[in-house]
Amino acid sequence: MSCGKCIKLLASLFIGVFSVPLFSAQLLSAQSIPTVDVQKEFKNGKASLAGEWALSWGEWTSLEDIAASEANFKIVQLPNFVTTLIDDKTLNELRFGTYILKLKNLSRTFNKPAIRMRNVNDAWQAWWIDESGQAQFLGESGKISKNYEAQQMRFKTQILQLPQNVNSGTLVVYLSAQLYKRAGMYGAFDVREFELANKALLSDLASRVALIAIGLLVVFQNILFYVFRPKERVLLLLAVFAFSVLLRAAVSTDYVYYLFGDPAYFDILLRLEYITIVWPAVAAAHFFSCLYPAKFSTRVVQLGYLIIALVVTFTLLVQLTQVVDNLFYYQGLLGIFSFYTMWLIINSMILTSLRSTLMIVSFFVLFGGVVNDVFAASSSTYNLYVSEYTLFLFLFAQTQYHSLRFVSALDMAEHLTNNLQKEVAQKTNELSIRNRELEDKADYLKVQHDRIKELSETDHLTGLYNRQMFDSYFDLKFTEAIQQTEHLSLVMLDIDNFKEINDGYGHQVGDACLKAIAEYLQQTNLRKNDFVARYGGEEVVIVLSNTDIKGAAEISQRICDGLSQIKFSVVQGAIALTASFGVAELTYNQASNTTQLLKLADDALYQAKLQGKNQVVTAKIDA
User: Fold this and answer.
1) Which of 75-79, 217-221, 453-457 shows the lowest mean pLDDT across its residues?
2) Is pLDDT at 488 greater than 70 in this prediction?
3) Would you tell me which of 79, 281, 556, 594 could form a disulfide with 616, CB atoms 3.0–4.6 Å apart?
4) What share of the chain in percent tops pLDDT 90?
5) Is the pLDDT of residue 19 over 50?
């Protein structure tokens, strides 16, 4: 095989050889390949490459054909996404192509010309063909390939150095767009001095390192404050919010590859980047729901974390191309929770407090950054991303506010500690005499108060709560159960054959039976929050908080069985005490008010009487 053919083969395979002599052939004419005169375009230290480029899609045109003026291409306007340059059918079948642009007056304008390749998706490989026909490998991002499985990618922090002391030549960029539909050469492309490009890269890196430092400060500072004040749950939520933003900033930046340079990490880092599109928004909703709780805010937060779980599962399990293709849904979830958070803050304006004002101002800055980045992600010409900066500015402002509040509380505590003892000592002597007088009066008043309270709340015969106290307590518990979506059961019991006891043994014996049953109920292993009251005559009601219909029926059956064991002794003999029970539950019976729930329990009690007494009957669902 001849030397020329070997060179042709090597060039067509794009091996990373620094310099491959092709042959002395005339390059394509200036009328064929678009040309940029960098000297004329030079402005503010750089020369823009925006404008006409040659694009050959569906093939990697060999360097030999480009040099021999045998390349087929069309003229396109860059920067732009491939989706706007190529029809959908072609793009679905062929996801690779060649970009070509001729540069002149390069060495007359720059000493060390360079291009920052940040805005190139997906994998790319760059070559330079000079006027003599020599091809020089410039650099690459991972490994270009004609199928997704073989492609390798890394984030684009690379600065592409063009040849020095070369006045004219052709820049060739081979692209494989196997992952992103919004692939191609987009954003601000320009030639600048290597030192200037490197300085811009390092300045950007320094600003992001500063952001990460602020993020770490916010996280650890709020965790530290939370450790000292566990009641301030908002501090922990702010730390979680800050950590989610910090993780988002870390994985979404190109500079992560300073730590993880292997393309093998690209897959997991990109998946993590998509997860952190949604997580900070949910964490923000949780944080602001704690600051400004609203109706259903707890449900929204729970739904948010359920969505996060689904997003994580989907993102980690499906193919990466599917994740990227569904970016719209990630951004949609981000928008939904961002709008909900904004609603919480606007709703808090009724507080008219400094904190709510600060939150509103800082959140609108944050929301503006999010809107800006969503627009930048969909634009091929506008690529300024600022949400990371606004996020950290917001978090830092909130952390400092809470820090000042925390420090103020500590200062107040310290002041009280240093001065309170002296103030107390001065007042102790003056108060001691007065205290003794007040203690005597307080003891008397307490006795009277307790007596009045007992008389107003309890039934004088049984010692159970009276009907008035039941009505008030039942209304309160019913409202709480509705608001908190909890179970609430009502048990109504009636002593069996009570009229016969009164008629046969006298009302004094009947009253004694009522007292005996009341004592039994007070000694029964009911829970601390269970409420027992005399409803009227021989009827007793029991309110069981946070208890479903099954649990209420079991408790009622235990009481019923226990009562049947009681033998009440009288002069005429022993009286067997039994009772019938009716049970109803708010959720189970779908009661809309206390009156309806009382009627359901009373109807169930009536059924228990009809069915033979001494038993428990549960209200029907359709009652």
Assistant:
1) 453-457
2) yes
3) 556
4) 33
5) no
CA distances from 290 to 224, 236, 294, 300, 457 (A): 19, 11, 9, 12, 37
Asked if 493 contacts 580 with a C-beta cutoff of 8 angstroms, the reply is yes
Within 488-593, residue ranges assigned H as helices are 498-505, 507-523, 549-563, 586-589
Task: Tell me which H or E stretch contains 440.
Answer: helix 387-457
What single-letter amino acid sits at 337? F
Kindly indicate the confidence band of residue 222, based on its pLDDT and cuts at 50, 70 and 90.
confident
Query: Where in 578-620 does DSSP place strands (E)?
Result: 579-585, 616-618
Q: Which residues of 160-191 are buried (b: 16+ CB within 10 A; e: fewer)?
A: bbbbeebbbbbbbbbbbbbbbbbbbbbbbbbb
Closest CA to 512 of 455, 466, 462, 562: 462
* Predicted confidence (pLDDT) per residue in 258-314, tens digit: 666 677 778 888 888 889 889 988 998 898 888 778 888 889 999 999 999 999 999
Regarding predicted confidence, which is higher, 496 or 246?
496
Asked if omega into 603 is within 30° of 0 (cis), the reply is: no
Amino acid at 423: E
Q: Which fold has domain 467-618?
A: Alpha-Beta Plaits (3.30.70)
What the block records as the tokens of 564 is 């049947």
User: At residue 596, does pLDDT exceed 60?
Assistant: yes
Q: What is the distance between the alpha carbons of residues 13 and 10, in angstroms, rounded to a whole number?
A: 5
> Per the omega criterion (within 30 degrees of 0), is the bond before 267 cis?
no
203-406 domain in CATH 1.20.120?
no
Dihedral over alpha carbons 173, 174, 180, 182 (to 10 degrees): 40
Contact 152, 235 (CB under 8 A): no
CA 180 to chain centre: 26
Taking the domains of the chain in order of start, what are their residue ranges?
A: 3-188, 203-406, 467-618
Task: Say how far apart CA 298 and CA 285 lie, in whole Å.
Answer: 10
